[in-house]
Amino acid sequence: MAAPLPEYVSSEITALVDGIRGGGVANGGRDVRWVRLDGLHLTLRFLGPTLDDRIGVVLDAVRTTATDGHAFEITIGGAGTFPNDARPRALWLGVRSGGEDLAALAASVDLALTRAGWPPEPKPFRAHLTLARADGVAAGASVAARLIAAAAGLQITCPIDRIGLFESLTGGGPARYEPIEMVRLGRV
Asked: Which residues are bridge partners to 144 per DSSP?
C-alpha cells in the first residue's frame, strides 16, 4: 500500500537522477540499480506476494484507511542510504516535512491490515522514497555520495491526497508499479 506522487515530482526527481546516473562508474563496473521513475510512490506498508483471494480484504483496508484519513502536504528533500553510506543497500530521498502525517497514515494502514489478519509491521516506519538499490556493488558508496550532495538543497512540496494498492510487475528491467485501486483521503 502506498501514496502515489504527482507527475511533476517524478519529473523533478528524474532530472536529479539523470545528473547522477552512471557518472563515475569505471572499468566496466556495475552502477546501482535505479528504480523506474515513472511510478514513484511512498510505500506505507509492503505486503509482498498476496494471493488473489486476499486482494479484496486489502482493498477494504485501503478504503477504510482513506475514509478515516485526511490530505496533507509533504516536502521531499535530502538523501541517505540504508543501512549506511559506506556500504549502502538502498539509496533514498528523505521527507523534510510531513513525515509525521505519513507515519500516522502508515500506522492506520498497519492497523487496518492487522484487523484483516496480517501480522503487524515489525519495523518502525521511516518516511523515504527509494531511488536505487546498491546490493553490494562497488559503485554504491560513490553514487550515494553524489546523490546526497545533489539532494542537499532539494525541496519538492506535493500533496498526499490518495493512497492505494500497487502491483509490482517484474521482468525486463526495474519493477513497474501498477495501481490496482486508488482512493482519495478523507470523507467524500
From this structure: none
Cα separation, 95 vs 166, in Å, equals 21
pTM for this one? 0.89
pLDDT one digit per residue (tens) for the chain, 188 residues: 999 999 999 999 999 999 998 665 555 556 899 998 988 999 999 988 787 888 999 999 999 999 999 999 999 999 999 998 889 999 999 999 999 999 999 999 999 999 999 999 999 999 999 999 998 788 899 999 999 999 999 999 999 999 999 987 777 777 778 888 999 999 65
CB atoms within 10 A of CB 79: 25
Cβ-proximal residues to 176 (8 Å cutoff; 6+ apart), any chain:
36, 39, 168, 169, 170
Query: What is the separation, in whole angstroms, between the first and last Cα of the chain?
Result: 20
Secondary structure of the chain: what % helix, strand, coil (to 5)?
A: 30, 30, 40
- Measured CA to CA, the distance from residue 155 to residue 149 in angstroms comes to 13
SS3 state of residue 21: coil
